[in-house]
Design a protein that fits this description.
The structure is a single chain. The chain is mainly beta and 89 residues long. The protein has a domain of 57 residues. Helices cover 10% and strands 28% of the residues. It is built from 1 helix and 6 strands. The strands form 2 sheets. The chain has a 4-stranded antiparallel sheet with strand order 4-1-5-6, with helices on one face. A two-stranded antiparallel ribbon has the order 2-3. The termini are far apart. The relative contact order is 0.25. The N terminus is likely disordered.
Amino acid sequence: MGDHTSMNQFIVTDGPETKVEGQQLFSVRLIDRRTGEVPSVNGIPLSILTQSPRSAVASFMRGRSRMLWRIEVEPVNAPLGGSNHGMAY
């Protein structure tokens, strides 16, 4: 099978904030400013699915230069009529 389909690697965080029912899920991605791409491991782009986006942003940016990296945060399954634009940090 010569054609490989890329899949995102989702990791669900299990912090105290995730215990509350009904909270919004967010997709959090680290973006390399030099290429505009999400880094990948073994060809799989990394992203995190979480209910604690601030914690995920802090983890992604720990030890990284903001001049080289940025973060995109987007709600997953946003309500109809709601904003579907991601936030960049």
